[in-house]
Amino acid sequence: MLTKTLTVALVGNPNAGKSTLFNALSGLRQRVGNYPGVTVEMKKGQFTAGGLTVDLIDLPGTYSLAARSPDEMVAVDLLLGRRPEEPRPDVVLSIVDATNLDRHLYLTSQLLDLGEPVVVAVNMIDAAEAQGVKIDCTALSAKLGVPVIPIQANKGIGIEALTQAMLAAAEEAKAPVGPAFPEAFEKEVTSLQTELGADVPGFLTRRLLLDVGGYVEAWQVEHHGQDLKQKLAEARQRLADAGHSVPGVEARARFAWVRAAVAVGVTRPAVRPVAFTDKLDKVLTHRVWGTLVFLVVMFLMFQSIFLWAKPLMDGIDGVREDIAKGIEGNMASGPLRALLVDGVVKGVGSVLIFLPQIMILFGFIAFLEDCGYMARAAFLMDRLMSRCGLSGKSFIPLLSSVACAVPGIMATRVIENRRDRLATIVVAPLMSCSARLPVYVLLIGAFLKEGYSSWVPGLVLFALYMIGFVVAPLVALVLKRTLLKGATPVFVMELPAYRRPKIFAVLRRMLEAGWAFTLRAGTFIFAAMILVWALLYFPHRDANGESYPNRIEKAEEAAKSNEDKLKELKAKPDATDDEKAELEKLEEAAGQADHLNGEWKRSSYLGRTGLYLEPVFRPLGWDWKIGMAALASFPAREVIVGTLGLIYDVGDVDTKAIGNDDADEEAKEKAAGLAKAVKDDWSKDPIRSKYGVAVAMSVMVFFALCCQCASTLAVIRRETKSWAWPAFTFVYMTVLAYLGAMVTFQFGSMIIDAMG
Amino acid sequence: MPALSELIVGQQAEVLAVTGEPALVQRLYEFGLLEGETVEFLGRAPLGDPIEIRLGNTRLTLRKAEAAGISVRIV
To answer: Where are the alpha helices (DSSP H) in A604-638?
Structure first.
């Protein structure tokens, strides 16, 4: 049987219930469509009806087809069949909110000008009835000249009738007629069309004339030169003189047409009833109560990404460790086992570890958006954020980044303005995320605890967190004045009516966010992990050609066989000199494996690079070992703890044990051992022994500002669809980190010198 | 002629003229904020900016700087 495919584009205002209708129509058969050159994603779904396969494209929510950015233009081009990826839609499905019919039908009236059949779905008909609004869809349909179907997308009511109407409209394939514009306007369009030629569709010619400074104008002026700009200005002036100035002429023509139809099809109560939203907004946007509620909501969200995610993350880590142990127990040692355990399993683990935070944050965001609170949050925070050139919509992404930049950057999708969104993405990694904490705790514990007042460690930690909160807005401000310069974006925003969120929709958003991250960002994170593993593993033979892993294994076995003897000697209070000598020997043997491991890592490719780059690290007060550990932490900042453990001969140190009182004794001992080893190693060296505190501060400032986080870079790449932005972020943050660390060390060592 | 940004909470006003950046004016028109419409001033954000207004059944928020270009007549 030959099945025909029908293409349907779903268009509507934000908050019209577009996603709900999309899900109701296409069920689980969905995928994400990507369009080159733009950051928007459009979902595509498929269903069958009346023997036809229907491809449904969900266009981004919009108030109008007046495109002002490449992203908005994609939607218009798609509707006009001007995108190579998609056929011209057979039917345009226009979803409108029954409680806000006039405003939503404005967009519908623009859709009528596309020349394709349009079907109108009036959503939330129950909510309108509750407000006393009666909608006669038959009368409305007669006035608008297109089918009008009442639906309740969230309950699946009216979906069947809607599908039938779409099929019938596609069959009939009749172009609807939109509102009439003044004759003077039509005359200008005709003469402009002659100028542009037949290649430009009439729809876009009208937009060219109407949208002052819009996308079509920029595009056509680039094509036809400044001459066209002059002609446009003249045409607009003639219209203004005739009392039809743009863009008012469009709004008046369309709203007059919409209101004429609504006057016939809709009966409203004489007095507008006080709605639930009115009452709730009195509290939620109130100076005191609104702020209080906002703070509580933000605190809850923040705590949940931190605390609720933690057991899940520990669970993932536990499974990863179990798998690694399983492999180690069942495979002979060698490069392949090391690749599997330290490369593959660790790599996969380090991707999956983000999922709890991402999904919890997206659960919150979906919930807040669905219930209508998101716009209020932006309203409350706008003044604060506008000081650094952003808008209130940047607040939640930046706040989330304090837990982790990866979900924070994904959360920037709520920002429609491209420049604002990019600025937010680029500064989000500066916010002090939780991965920096182990580095801070380790070094503060080693250098700023003993011999200092008890408030010093806390103060230093606070200062390190503040670096991000101060630097991020400054960088955003600079970016918005230079690289991302442009007209202040229009802030005007709708505060939608409050609604009860649908649990299913929230769960769906959580899963989608998790999937998107795992598939697109995960591969890069994985690759970065493997690369750094290989640079630390090879060459894996010593000067005599013996394999380090083998030597380490032998040393471990030797140490193990002497464990009892060592314990016995240690416990002996009155040991003879011979026994003391033996004890010393045994203790050395016990440390042999860690020592060999350190020697191996120091001679690895990464170790050699660190040695080679030592002059670069000198102004920061670092030796090559610190530099090498910093390099090795490229996949993730906290990796520096493990790397330091290896190169300072302490062996494997569990990052989670740093500053964690609940860790098991052995892990805690190792962590304490690392702090001591760092201190001991530095004390052997003239610079680091004298300026230890300055060096520790320099390392911490570096980690506060740097972007040693492959996951962040991967997710920036995913969200901006370009390598340029992650590259830019990495470079500017590394430069900032280097300069910050240098200033810290130079200044710190000056103070130490002055104090004698 | 006062600007929309100068109203006090609870006041209703008729829009007389909408001026500003073309993109802003167009967006306001798209929301139905046309000359001759009546709006109600609902309040300000805790930090004094932006403001919240009601237009028909729609609640809008806009920055004071944006509202400054909308001249109104208090009714």
So the answer is: 605-612, 614-617, 624-632
d(CA A177, CA A94): 15
Residue-wise burial string across A563-583, b where 16 or more C-beta atoms lie within 10 A, e elsewhere? eeebeebeeeeeeeeeeeebb
Q: Could you report the predicted ipTM of this complex, rounded to two decimals?
A: 0.95
Alpha-carbon gap, residue A751 to B5, rounded angstroms:
53
CATH second-level architecture of B4-74? Roll (2.30)
**Which backbone phi and psi does A150 adopt, to 5 degrees?**
-75, 135
Q: Which of A213, A247, A495 sits opposite B52 (nearest CB)?
A: A495
Kindly state the tokens that stand for A141.
Answer: 């349909």
- Return residues 516-535 of A near B (CB < 8 Å): none
Q: What is the mean pLDDT of chain A?
A: 87
**Spans of all domains in chain B:** 4-74
Copy the structure tokens of residue A429.
Answer: 């990694």
Flag whether pLDDT at A163 surpasses 60.
yes
Closest-CA distance, B15 to chain A, in angstroms, reads 14
DSSP codes, A16-50: SSHHHHHHHHHTT-EEEEE-TT---EEEEEEEEET
Nearest in space to A443 (alpha carbons), one of A735, A748, A686:
A748
The per-residue pLDDT for range A558-579, each reduced to its tens digit, is 887 877 777 777 777 777 777 7
pTM metric for this prediction: 0.82
Contact A689, A712 (CB under 8 A): no
* Residues composing chain A: 756
What is the least distance, in Å, from the CA of B57 to any CA of chain A?
A: 6
- pLDDT, tens digit, for every residue of A585-622? 877 777 788 888 778 888 888 888 888 898 999 999 99
